[in-house]
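Data availability (excerpt). The following record was deposited with the supplementary files.
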Amino acid sequence: MALFEKVLCPVDFDDNSLKAVRLARRIAQRDEGKVLLLHVVVPTDPLVISAPLVGRRNEADAQALLKRLVDQELVGVAHETLVAHGPPADETVRIAGEVKADLIVMATHARHGLAHVVLGSVAEKVVREARCPVLTVRMD
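Predicted structure:
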């Protein structure tokens, strides 16, 4: 019996999330499972101080980047791509519950100081709130 049949991997398309995708792929292959790639589009709010600090994409951009990531990293691996809209941690936890993920594999960004205070830690919140195991990958 496979341990992790559905591996949710939230991505923001930076180098750290690419490494998380590679780890999610290995886990899914080992367990004959599926990688569920998720990108959360963060709504643009001109009143939010973090807006210039966070990469903004629309859904079409996200879909194109997910397709490219699949073509580069998930050929021959069962996969699905998902795009959600909202706060990344909240949406990651919500989607994990919806798809009944067995595991979340996600990168951490190791922000410190003001960036951590302003942006918070998506990974920290997901670890606290997810109902399935969360494997965080720090690749600084």
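Summary of structural features: The longest helix spans residues 15-30.
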